[in-house]
Amino acid sequence: VKIFAPNIEQRDVVNHLKGSPAEEKRNVLVESARLARGNIQDLAELKASEFDAVIFPGGFGVAKNLCSWAVDGKNCTVNEHVNSTLQAFHSAKKPIGLCCISPVLAAKVFPGCEVTVGQDKNVDGRFPDAETASAITELGCKHICKNVNESHVDKANKIVTTCAFMCKAPLHEIFDGIGTMVQEVLKLA
């Protein structure tokens, strides 16, 4: 297992203690190295031929830094290294795992694929970002409704997705969903 991140400037920096923007600049690779305890490489160096699968985490950083979804929605652009990584694994018929908001990357890069970001309606207030499912459909992809503890496998494209924090749920349910995504990716590898 190796961890990669793009060597780019973050779109913005948030002071999570105050919940407001911070007046500073940070680099995605440097911040990712902090989280990964330094054991990380530039995404530009990733070679699909050296790996059996790839998994993209989610989080608002994906929507801001790996693509421009946070600002542009379905009209977003995908970072060139993220796009080429996804294309390389897809072309090699190797599995791709995506959780939380990152299934929008597949929806943007692979028209016609099947993904999930949870539900397409805000069921009991648990899915506040349910409109993302509609945007995925507008991109020509099929959104599959799933609960937070489930994942969806697009067998034709070897894409496995789960909604994770796109659902307001207890952490153990989110953990279960991510676990099923990882298990399904490993089965396809």
From TrEMBL:
InterPro entries: Class_I_gatase-like. It comes from the Eukaryota. PANTHER family: ES1 PROTEIN HOMOLOG, MITOCHONDRIAL, GLUTAMINE AMIDOTRANSFERASE LIKE CLASS 1 DOMAIN CONTAINING 3A-LIKE1-RELATED. This is GAL3A protein. It comes from Opisthocomus hoazin (Hoatzin). The lineage of its organism: Eukaryota, Metazoa, Chordata, Craniata, Vertebrata.
